[in-house]
Amino acid sequence: NAGVTQTPKFQVLKTGQSMTLQCAQDMNHEYMSWYRQDPGMGLRLIHYSVGAGITDQGEVPNGYNVSRSTTEDFPLRLLSAAPSQTSVYFCASRPTLGGSGGYTFGSGTRLTVV
Amino acid sequence: GNSVTQMEGPVTLSEEAFLTINCTYTATGYPSLFWYVQYPGEGLQLLLKATKADDKGSNKGFEATYRKETTSFHLEKGSVQVSDSAVYFCARPHGSSNTGKLIFGQGTTLQVKP
Question: Taking CB atoms and an 8 Å cut-off, how many pairs form between chains A and B?
Answer without folding.
Answer: 51
